[in-house]
Amino acid sequence: MSKTLLSFGHGYSARALAKRLVLQGWTIYGTTRNPGKSSALEDEGVIPVIWPDGDLGKAFDTATHLLISAGPDAEGDPILNKYSSEIKSIAPNLEWAGYLSTTGVYGDHQGGWVNEDTPLAPSTRRGQMRVDAENQWKSIASLPLHIFRLAGIYGPGRGPFEKVRQGTARRIIKENQVFSRIHVEDIAQVLEASIRRPNPGQAYNLCDNDPAPPQDVIGYAAELLGLPIPPEISFEDAEMTPMARSFYAESKRVSNARIKDELGVTLIYPDYRAGLQALLANDD
Question: Keywords in UniProt for this one (predicted)?
Answer without folding.
Answer: NAD
